[in-house]
Amino acid sequence: MKPNIVVVGSSNTDLVVKLPRLPGKGETVIGGTFSLAAGGKGANQAVAASRAGGSVAFVSKVGDDHFGRQALDAFKNDALDTRFVGVHTTTASGIALIFVDGHGENCIGVASGANSEFLPADVEKARELIISADVLLLQLEIPLSTVEATIRIASDAGVPVLLNPAPAFPLEPSLLRHVSIITPNESEVEILTGMRISDDATIVAASLILRNMGIPAVVITLGARGAYLSEESGDQFVAPFTVDPVDTTAAGDVFSGALAVSIGEGTALRDAVRFASAAAALSVTKLGAQPSAPQRAEIETLLNGTNSRSASYAG
Questions:
Q1: Closest CA to 209 of 190, 224, 222, 228
Q2: What's the chain's Rg over C-alpha atoms?
Q3: pTM for this structure?
């Protein structure tokens, strides 16, 4: 049986320009190609979780415009339960402007739009859905008050809370102790803990800071270096998979969505991190956010070692 995953978060439309290199301050770089794709960290994670094998409900808000209607149609194509995706009648849907360079690295600017109008009252409407979930997954592209309300609903009901703290900003320990698993990348770790990641020792130290805030399990994604898992039963580095990177956009979202599914299936956390790493690795081989999220069969093929590529990535 598929695990029930509830994702609460943002929905955007991504306007992507592929360039030879990322522009510097005040600089224009000519020669890019343009594409439009569905995005938003919440929507990316919901789609990734569905394709990874979850039964997924998405709780969000879009605008009453072309991009919002397009997003709702796309969610249905990925079999998402969208009963609690609200439509704001006077605020535009969220938009992300993304530059991607020839090495697959990116920089992103976001106009939050309807995401900024996604309020605790909207989440309250989905209370019964949330408390029946096997895993709750959320991020920080929506108002913090909405994040807090969602986490408390799930925590009070004993639902595991998986938080991808992106885009990162300092969070109170009083909130973090209600989180079951947190999945920051290196820059997000620095914002959350004040510790800059420079080597293995600082990775270990930063994970302990987060654990001491009351979070039972910490998964730090390290891109091409893999991931680091810290939990009560022990700490370990999880090796990356070998791929040819094209675009790293949404790799962390795909990681989190796949991780939620594997946890919901009752998989040991180390193996769940490896499953999520395989999904993230596959995602960087394609351009775009949601278009890059792999199907379950692709993830299992890479896990089984029958996929050969050439560079490595984990999330």
A1: 190
A2: 18
A3: 0.90
The answer to whether 58 and 70 have CB atoms below 8 angstroms apart is no
CA distances, 297 to each of 59, 208, 225, 294, 312 (Å): 26, 35, 24, 8, 20
For residue 184 the two structure tokens come to 């920051």
Closest to 217 measured CA to CA, from 202, 235, 244, 195: 235
Per-residue pLDDT of the chain (315 residues), as tens digits, is 899 999 999 999 989 899 999 999 999 999 889 988 888 999 999 999 999 999 999 999 999 999 999 999 999 999 999 999 999 999 999 998 989 898 888 888 889 999 999 999 999 999 999 999 999 999 999 999 999 999 999 999 999 999 999 999 999 999 999 999 999 999 999 999 999 999 999 999 999 999 999 999 999 999 888 999 999 999 999 998 988 888 887 899 999 999 999 999 999 999 999 999 999 999 999 887 788 899 999 999 999 885 434 344 556
Q: Where are the beta strands (DSSP E) in 139-294?
A: 161-163, 181-182, 217-221, 227-231, 234-238, 241-242
In the chain, what is the straight-line distance between the N-terminal and C-terminal CA atoms, in Å? 27
Interstrand relation of 161-163 and 33-39 (parallel, antiparallel or unpaired):
unpaired
Q: How many residues does the chain have?
A: 315
Catalytic positions, please?
253
Q: Which long-range contacts (CB under 8 A, 24 or more apart) does 293-296 make?
A: 293/44, 293/47, 293/48, 293/51, 293/52, 293/250, 293/254, 293/257, 294/51, 294/52, 294/254, 295/51, 296/51, 296/52, 296/53
For the beta carbon of residue 234, count every other beta carbon within 10 angstroms: 8
